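Figure-free illustration: sequence to structure, shown twice.
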Amino acid sequence: MFFDTLRFLIHSLCGLFVLVLLLRFYLQVARAPFKHPLCQFVMAATNFAVLPLRKLVPAMRSYDSATMLLAWLVALLSNVLVTLLSSVPEVFTFPQVWVALSLLSLLEVFKQSLTLLMGSVIVQAVLSWVSPYNPLMPVLDALTRPFLRPFRKANIGGVDLSPLVLLLIIQVILMLPVRMLEASFLTQLKVVL
């Protein structure tokens, strides 16, 4: 029971930090207004880890590769710690374990990215009905606009259904290819463990 609680805490805390790192990365990609309090919070919460890593990892094509690498490393750390709680440390001598954990961590970053997009779309849709002039709307619009643009023609009776279409697509991606890949990587890991 203690180890289950510890696994939950490790997974939750690392997952939240990965989400904040991904939010930082995507806010920069989307060129969101950084004077917003949410953007200021994201920068302040991640600067301690991102700024030192930027000295070692340069930006690639104006993308903040240090932030994305750090998100992957935190996901990898989470998977390593959870695996350590579940098995003996000797399993880390097998290269297959490291490959499986690295791929699982990459998949976790992708899943968290989809979760971030899904949450942004939902909050934006709700705010568009409840409080369309909310100061958070420009930030959400910057994050979701590129993904909603292809579906803007999904308009029935003046109601924009593009968020619904995008949410359905994200759910299908999470249910089929992501779940299949995750099961495959976990199977590889369990064979060694």
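We now fold a second protein in the same way, so the two outputs can be compared directly.
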Amino acid sequence: MIEHSWLSTKEAAQLLDVSQRTIQNWVDTGKLKSTKTLGGHRRLMRSDVEGFLVLRESAMPAALSAVAAEPPAANELRVLIVEDDRTLLRLYELKFGEFNVPHRLFLAANGYQGLLLAGKHCPHLVIADLNMPEMNGLQLIQEIRKTADMKDSKIIVATGLKAVDIMKMGTLPEDIMILPKPIPFQTLETILYQQSSIFLKQCLM
């Protein structure tokens, strides 16, 4: 059986395991290319969509992917960490496991995988490295901020770069918090408590 070269937004969403709305947003912002049929329906090239899929599946070992295997509970704060240093990524996992705040951790080893997980889970808190290959942290933040469902997400940059080097990459939004490396996990624990309190208050409204 020969596979079609084009996919509908629904088929692309199923292939990437994200919502159809996320696919439409990525098309609108130019992250994925599309064309339209005579009837006005969007079609995406299978090769473009599969390129995203390959990046996601090759970026993360199975042990890390398993952290996000089950859907989060209703009272769990959703936290996305994007970091290309695998050792540091595992340290995040261990440290967050010690925090007594209901949360679900999603780990990504590059910007593309981070964008996919953000599109699928709409995290309340995002912690991202800046200096990453392919898609750096600034580009990731810009894409996340284009998504209406994540306009209120708190974003933190964790980086070992100096201020002058950050400025060379571009301008960070004013509300982005910058934390230095090595990671101050005590500060992150405090932030997690604060965000959890805000999240729970919103749930009660």
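Summary for the second example: The chain is about 45% helix and 15% strand.
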